[in-house]
Amino acid sequence: MKAIDLVAPAGSLVALKAAVDKGANAVYLGLRNATNARNFGGLNFSDTDIRQGLAYAHGRGRQVLFAINTYPQAGAVAEWRAAIDTAASMGADAVILADPGLMAYARDRHPDLRLHLSVQGSATTLDAIELMREQFAIKRAVLPRVLTLAEIAKIIRQTTVEIEVFGFGSLCVMAEGRCLLSSYVTGDSPNNKGVCSPAHAVSWEEKEHTLYARLNGTLIDRYAPDEAAAYPTLCKGRFDVAGDVDYALEEPTSLNAIALLPQLINMGVAAIKIEGRQRSPSYVAQVVGTLRAALDAAQRDTERYSPRADWQTTLARHAEGAQVTQGAFERPWK
């Protein structure tokens, strides 16, 4: 049985080195421009950082994947094509793309460059994945976090494309990177602005012992003095629905799939991905180290594997709202 790759996020050179040191098989990163979906200040890689990161990873037998996963804007396609050229010239092990036009460019201009279909491409069916394979020779597809284990297994049985799934991190219940709720409220595309709640649209106001969190003026939540406040994300806000104030769409929580590793291994998943290029090097080090230990234990003996309590404690510490879920993998509400 082929070992599963552990794919880790890197928003900086320090985070990349932490991921490699803690056992990631591959690290994904972005350039300091609009070609990646985590484009904001203080994050991502200069050319010098990339060269150092590539040398560090390749010197230890690890891979570096370039996330060029946004959709080119009208009149600026050359910037996205230049990003692909940069990845190819620097020795990227793969590029992660969502836009078919960019895939065509990469296929024609750099035929030896390995292509991965980004989660931003929202490929949730066999037909979608096979179309990308037939047209652009993709080698791997990253699945959105909306499929059950049974649905993932069915896709794997019917395609030669490697399948990558998320194992830990923020949970998205929308069309990833193209959330219409966020676009409607902020006026910005999450795909092109680096995050679904851009900092310029976030505001906090404390009044009469209550903290109000707003997104572009829209009230997302309010917190009592002793209540932990979450970053205002529209899908994870509390709203008044027919007189009942609660999380109408989704609670602040993070995906944690370490209890499901034996199933993912047995069905033939090629890679487990950790979300969080916007997170700190400490987050990267602790989450990668925990997932590495869990994945190694599961691959040694899937029958006797059981996630350790200290692994769960570590992951919960880095989860939104200090809560974790298996998300759509099992869909207990069905």
Helix/strand-derived category reads alpha/beta
Please identify, by name, the CATH architecture of the largest domain: Alpha-Beta Barrel
Average pLDDT taken over every residue: 91
Tally of alpha and pi helices: 11
State the distance separating the first and last CA atoms: 32 Å
According to CATH, the homologous superfamily of the largest domain is Aldolase class I
Number of domains: 2
CATH class of the largest domain, named Alpha Beta
Helix content: 25-40%
Characterize the overall form: globular
Taking Cα atoms only, what radius of gyration do you get, to the nearest Å? 20 Å
Strand order of the largest sheet: 1-2-3-4-5-6-7-14
Biggest β-sheet description: 8 strands, parallel, barrel
- Along the chain, the helix and strand elements come as EHEHEHEHEHEHEHHEEEEEEHEHHE
Strand content: 15-25%
For this structure, the CATH topology of the largest domain is: TIM Barrel
Low-confidence stretches: none
Number of strands: 15
